[in-house]
Specification:
It is a single chain. The chain has 243 residues and is α/β, with parallel strands linked by helices. It has a single domain, classed as Rossmann fold (3-Layer(aba) Sandwich), CATH 3.40.50.150. Helices cover 29% and strands 25% of the residues. The strands form two sheets. Strands 1, 2, 3, 4, 5, 8, 9 and 10 form an eight-stranded mixed sheet that branches. Strand 1, helix 3 and strand 2 form a beta-alpha-beta unit. Helix 7 packs across helix 8. It is globular and about 55 Å long. The N terminus is likely disordered.
């Protein structure tokens, strides 16, 4: 991607004034702002699945302070080191970063009140396990509140994974109705998907411009790609409750 190119998926999601540090803000490549949409209360414990540079964890920690804790889970040492540096710079004490995968959360049963995530669950090849793990670590009446990419209609199989979206892609995105069904199967109630951002044709064209031509299937060009993806996917806020 050129220095001038802006990823429409991950840009413009946070007020720079609310970010705990410029580095944390720059490291965020999500598709939403779950901390702005989730109900977080002082004294609650929050878990961010796939916490990256720690922005959502640090924002959550401020909202649940002084007695609540925000946990960030990431599988990469580099991201955990960055998140801890951002935490130190922000002077936030009630955040804890853990190494592990979102399919095997290193926390006990019923240990948090809210599970958040920002454009990470779409990357998992085993979403059913991710959702069962989220259900397991939530306390009774806990809340699932994540931002992610969802498909609003099917797209040709050969186009899945063509367009890279910052840290991820649409290749693993679920249909909105399928996400609800999987949450219900995991034990959640009141599951729903709220579209928070639809992408304009201009934004899709911007994505197509920075797509590696080698990734575009034979017989397709960038114009075909835009046409096929127009209206097919969106950023969404996905909610559910544990009984």
């Amino acid at each position: 991607m050129s220095a001038e190119a802006v990823d429409p998926i991950s840009s413009g999601l946070y007020d720079a004034a609310e970010a705990p540090s410029e580095v944390a803000l720059a490291a965020s490549l999500g598709c939403g702002n779950p901390t702005a949409l989730a109900q977080l209360n002082p004294g609650e414990d929050v878990l961010d699945l796939g916490s990256g540079g720690g922005l959502d964890v640090l924002l959550s920690a401020r909202r649940v302070a002084p007695d609540g804790t925000a946990y960030g889970l990431d599988m990469t040492v580099e991201m955990l080191e960055l998140a801890r540096r951002n935490q130190a710079e922000a002077g936030i004490q009630n955040a804890t970063f853990l190494q592990g995968t979102i399919e095997d959360v290193p926390l006990p049963d019923q240990s948090v009140d809210v599970v958040i995530s920002n454009c990470v669950i779409n990357l998992s090849p085993d979403k059913d396990t991710v959702l069962r793990e989220a259900f397991r670590v939530l306390r009774p009446h806990g809340r699932f509140a994540v931002s992610d990419i969802v498909l609003l209609r099917e797209i040709p199989d050969e186009l899945r994974g063509v367009v890279r979206l910052g840290t991820g892609c649409i290749s693993g995105a679920l249909r909105d109705g399928d996400f609800v069904q999987k949450l219900t199967a995991a034990g959640f109630e009141d599951a729903g998907v709220e579209v928070t951002r639809r992408y304009t044709r201009d934004e899709l064209e911007s994505m197509a411009e920075v797509t590696d031509v080698a990734r575009i299937p034979d017989g397709w060009d960038r114009t075909d790609l835009v046409q096929a993806l127009d209206g097919a996917f969106a950023s969404a806020f996905i909610r559910a409750n544990k009984p």
